Amino acid sequence: MPRRRVPTRHPSRAAARRLGLSYEGVFRQATVYKKRNRDTAWYAAIDEDWPALDRAFTQWLAPANFDSEWNQRVSLRTLTEPILVARG
Q1: How far apart are CA 87 and CA 51, in angstroms?
Q2: Residue 62 belongs to a domain with what CATH number?
Q3: Which of 27-31, 51-55, 80-84 has the highest mean predicted lDDT (pLDDT)?
Q4: Does 88 reside within a domain?
Q5: What is the pTM (predicted TM-score) of this model?
Q6: Chain-centre distance for alpha carbon 80
Q7: Pair 31, 38: CB distance under 8 Å
Q8: Segments in the chain forming alpha helices (H)
Q9: Residue 22 and residue 43 in contact, taking contact as beta carbons nearer than 8 Å
Q10: 18-33: per-residue pLDDT in tens?
Q11: Which range among 1-5, 15-19, 23-27 shows the weakest confidence by mean pLDDT?
Q12: Is residue 36 part of a domain?
């Protein structure tokens, strides 16, 4: 399940990490956009990662993880951080 992003977009990087996608690397000058070369950073989860990610998502979405006002008790990032192989 690859995910690409432009390296300067920190919200995209944070979202990929929060979902448990590990940093794979950067394709330098991967595309031209608005007459500028753009690097693309790649994040991915492989089949071996999926059982742990599935447990993290299930635990995060469980009703017990939310208080009476639907605020999460444990963040998704906290649950997926130990699964990451590489951070970028």
Answers
A1: 19
A2: 3.40.630.30
A3: 51-55
A4: no
A5: 0.74
A6: 9
A7: yes
A8: 10-18, 50-61, 76-80
A9: yes
A10: 999 998 888 888 777 8
A11: 1-5
A12: yes
